[in-house]
Design a protein that fits this description.
This is 3-beta hydroxysteroid dehydrogenase/isomerase domain-containing protein. The protein is an alpha/beta fold. The protein contains 13 helices and 14 strands. The strands form four sheets. The chain has a seven-stranded parallel sheet, sandwiched between helices. Helix 3 links the parallel strand 4 and strand 5. The longest helix is centred in the last third of the chain and has 22 residues. The termini are far apart.
Length: 399
């Protein structure tokens, strides 16, 4: 029997990667969290793609930038997890779409929360809001830094292009940081009924993997499957980057939600890094670990590497050419080559002390289990989406 006195919780972007993991944990902990109703709002009807469980929830379809289309989702809600947004490293960046989806959409969510007296708002930000060039280089260096120490620019109504130039991942990072600042600035804003204020926080996960991933490992598998599963080293010897399992990122959101309810002063108006015990290594090593647990794709590094400065130079020339041709030919690249090189050569791992102390966060799922669950899902995805040739990648050309 439903608990009529419990909370009504809404997840924006409920059909997305992190949104689905949050919904799964909300269902698994529904009684403990005293939740009466779980809702999802997205551009499409909620569909579970991360496992085989049947979950029944109220689902709304609408555009956050058109508040009248989603107002029913917010009416009567007590708490909101705002996961909806646009993930894109396209070059040239589509600033119009990023601004609309990440910034305007977030402002709309905040306004709807205030108008409909939502008490708690947890925003899904990202670790890349801290990815700024280290001492004028094209790499980021974030070594065991907390939220107060990590280099994070502040947007003060300056030209958005000028602001964007402060990041190594152009377009996306600046839009997410501006959205994050909107959410955190709304902390303490009076609700429309005069009964209390909105309490907010922002979760900053690093690059995330796991079931439902449609950007990171899946895109790498698309590329690698047509290149004999050889990972090209385009950033010299490379750096090291922190990764996190989606289930633990979602658990960080749940812990933040509980903290906002029980001790709002602890993280209210503040960002929180969420990490787990996934080994810190360069991206190619992580993909090799994923591949080692599967017979479908065995990934290996190229025997050669391109010095970072040389790759950056030629990538810059290519991007300049695209800038010249784009207005006429409408040429774009799904990824900025300079951004990929900059990320691959960066040193990135965060200190989650704030999460441990103030929201009582401990990773829910250990690395071995996270890898196993992820690999099972990636194999299924691979079989459904990648044309199978010569045993689906089990055989490779020699290099």
């Amino acid at each position: 029997m439903a608990n009529e006195s419990g909370d009504v919780v809404l997840v924006t972007g409920g059909s997305g990667f992190i949104g689905q993991h949050i919904i799964r944990l909300l269902f698994e902990n529904k009684s403990e969290l005293n939740i009466r109703e779980i809702r999802s709002v997205d551009l499409k009807t909620y569909k579970n793609t991360i496992d085989d469980e049947q979950r029944y929830l109220r689902t709304f379809v609408g555009d956050l930038c058109e508040p009248e289309s989603v107002v029913d989702a917010f009416k009567g809600a007590d708490s909101v997890f705002h996961c909806a947004g646009m993930m894109s490293l396209q070059f040239p960046p589509n600033y119009g779409k990023l601004n609309r989806n990440n910034i305007e959409g977030t402002q709309s969510v905040v306004d709807l929360c205030v108008k409909h007296n939502v008490k708690h708002l947890v925003y899904t930000s990202c670790g890349s809001v801290c990815f700024v060039p280290f001492k004028g280089t094209h790499t980021a260096v974030i070594i065991n830094q907390t939220e107060t120490k990590a280099p994070t620019p502040v947007y003060k109504d300056q030209d958005h292009m000028e602001f964007d130039r402060q990041f190594i991942l152009r377009g996306y990072s600046s839009s997410k940081l501006r959205a994050e600042q909107i959410v955190l600035a709304a902390h303490g804003r009076a609700l429309s009924n005069g009964n209390g204020t909105l309490v907010t926080t922002a979760i900053r996960p690093p690059l995330t993997y796991g079931e439902g991933d449609n950007f990171f490992v899946t895109d790498m598998l698309k590329y690698l499957s047509s290149h004999s599963f050889v990972y090209p080293r385009i950033a010299g010897v490379g750096g090291k980057q922190q990764l996190c399992y989606a289930g633990n990122v979602a658990w960080g959101h749940i812990c933040a939600y509980k903290s906002l309810k029980s001790a709002p002063r602890a993280i209210g108006g503040l960002p929180v890094f969420i990490t787990d015990e996934t080994s810190i290594a360069d991206t190619s090593r992580f993909l090799q670990k994923i591949g080692a647990s599967s017979e479908k794709f065995k990934v290996r590094q190229s025997s050669w590497y391109i010095p970072r400065a040389i790759f950056q130079f030629f990538a810059m020339l290519l991007e300049l050419l695209i800038i010249v041709l784009e207005p006429v030919k409408k040429i774009t690249m799904k990824y900025s080559l300079r951004a990929l090189c900059a990320y691959a050569s960066s040193m990135i791992f965060f200190n989650r002390l704030r999460a441990a102390i103030h929201i009582d966060y401990v990773p829910l799922i250990e690395e071995q289990t996270a890898i196993k669950k992820s690999v099972q899902w990636y194999i299924k995805w691979y079989e459904q989406n990648i044309p199978q040739r010569n045993g689906g990648g089990a055989k490779r050309k020699n290099h």
